């Protein structure tokens, strides 16, 4: 399976190149950078700091259309949609890790998935996808007597909030409790807010330093609190999951998939 990485010089892009070079059954077919990047033409392996791989970085998907079977995209919502459109048009699979897509952008992505296979997940780590299962079970057992709060922390460079992982965690808990997250979510609190309502799900965001990605879900009631916590210590955990998803897509029919499909957790 030949894999292309777009945003190849990014925090995730470099880890993806490393993960591809470490994994059996996949090879780096192409590395794509922003047009005008000073790194255009540089060897992708050297961009990632792992030595030459013989894959020069190019400025567009068109420049490498015959060099890959699946694209891995950890970039921005607008670019991701352009890339998904390209993959739909040219029968390429795509793994989307990008977060911060709004509802309309997610609908557009689902439209492209009608033409080519897409894995879309806000967190590609095995640990978070296991945590999602734990959260559903905890919510089903604990029910409405436990107040739910979700705290997430990331590095100072992250541009979207709350994290896609936190939102997914909120969706899983809300679904398990028979709630609509759009109705019960509370994003940040300040001023004379009054007592919390029983069914609200609160989100708190921390942006500081070099935190890779930490999520804590509180289930709190009179007398006790259960916290389910996931802490990532390296972006390699996300990269390995993404490359596993890329390999999993080989031979798949068009459609929208997530990491629960890739990890057989459904
Ligand atoms: N699903 C998951 O498991 C994870 C998801 N993410 C998500 O992935 C996304 C990226 O995160 P991160 O890697 O930290 O961000 P970075 O900003 O480090 O990487 C994004 C990359 O995209 C590049 N880029 C932007 N525009 C273009 C373009 N037009 N053509 C080619 N490349 C372009 C940027 O280039 P330049 O630097 O030149 O601007 C940059 O290298 C975020 O949405 C984040 O939330 C992150 C980790 C895990
Ligand atoms: O931006 C990041 O770094 C991360 N973003 C993802 C998210 O928004 O959930 C996944 C991970 O937590 C790292």
UniProtKB/TrEMBL annotation:
Classification via CDD domains: DHDPR_N
Main location per the UniProt record: cytoplasm
Residues annotated as binding (S)-2,3,4,5-tetrahydrodipicolinate: 155, 164-165
Boundaries of every Dihydrodipicolinate reductase C-terminal domain copy: 127-263
Active site, renumbered: 154 (proton donor/acceptor), 158 (proton donor)
Domain of life from the UniProt record: Bacteria
Pathway given in the UniProt record: Amino-acid biosynthesis; L-lysine biosynthesis via DAP pathway; (S)-tetrahydrodipicolinate from L-aspartate: step 4/4
GO molecular function: 4-hydroxy-tetrahydrodipicolinate reductase; NAD binding; NADP binding; oxidoreductase activity, acting on CH or CH2 groups, NAD or NADP as acceptor
Subcellular location: Cytoplasm
Top EC category: oxidoreductase
Family matches, as HAMAP family: DapB (MF_00102)
PANTHER family recorded: 4-HYDROXY-TETRAHYDRODIPICOLINATE REDUCTASE 1, CHLOROPLASTIC-RELATED, DIHYDRODIPICOLINATE REDUCTASE
Subunit (UniProt): Homotetramer.
Family: Belongs to the DapB family.
Protein name: 4-hydroxy-tetrahydrodipicolinate reductase
Organism: Marinomonas posidonica (strain CECT 7376 / NCIMB 14433 / IVIA-Po-181)
């Amino acid at each position: 399976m030949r894999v292309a990485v777009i945003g190849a010089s990014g925090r995730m892009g470099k880890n993806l190149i490393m993960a591809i070079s470490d994994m059996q059954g996949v090879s780096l077919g192409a590395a794509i950078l922003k047009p005008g990047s000073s790194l255009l033409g540089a060897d992708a392996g050297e961009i990632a700091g792992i030595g030459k791989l013989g894959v020069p970085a190019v400025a567009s998907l068109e420049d490498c259309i015959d060099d890959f079977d699946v694209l891995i995209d950890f970039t921005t919502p607008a670019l991701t949609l352009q890339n998904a459109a390209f993959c739909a048009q040219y029968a390429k699979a795509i793994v989307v890790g990008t977060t911060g897509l709004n509802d309309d952008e997610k609908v557009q992505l689902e439209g492209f998935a009608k033409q080519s296979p897409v894995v879309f997940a806000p967190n590609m780590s095995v640990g978070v996808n296991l945590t999602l299962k734990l959260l559903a079970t905890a919510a089903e057992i604990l029910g409405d007597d436990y107040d739910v709060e979700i705290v997430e922390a990331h590095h100072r460079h992250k541009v979207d909030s709350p994290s896609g992982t936190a939102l997914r965690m909120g969706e899983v808990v809300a679904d398990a409790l028979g709630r609509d997250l759009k109705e019960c979510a509370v994003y940040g609190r300040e001023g004379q807010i009054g007592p919390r309502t029983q069914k609200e799900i609160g989100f708190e965001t921390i942006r500081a330093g070099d935190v890779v990605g930490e999520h804590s879900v509180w289930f709190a009631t009179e007398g006790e609190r259960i916290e389910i916590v996931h802490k990532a210590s390296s972006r390699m955990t996300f990269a390995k999951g993404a490359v596993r998803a890329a390999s999993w897509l080989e031979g798949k029919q068009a459609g929208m998939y997530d990491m629960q499909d890739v990890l057989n957790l459904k």
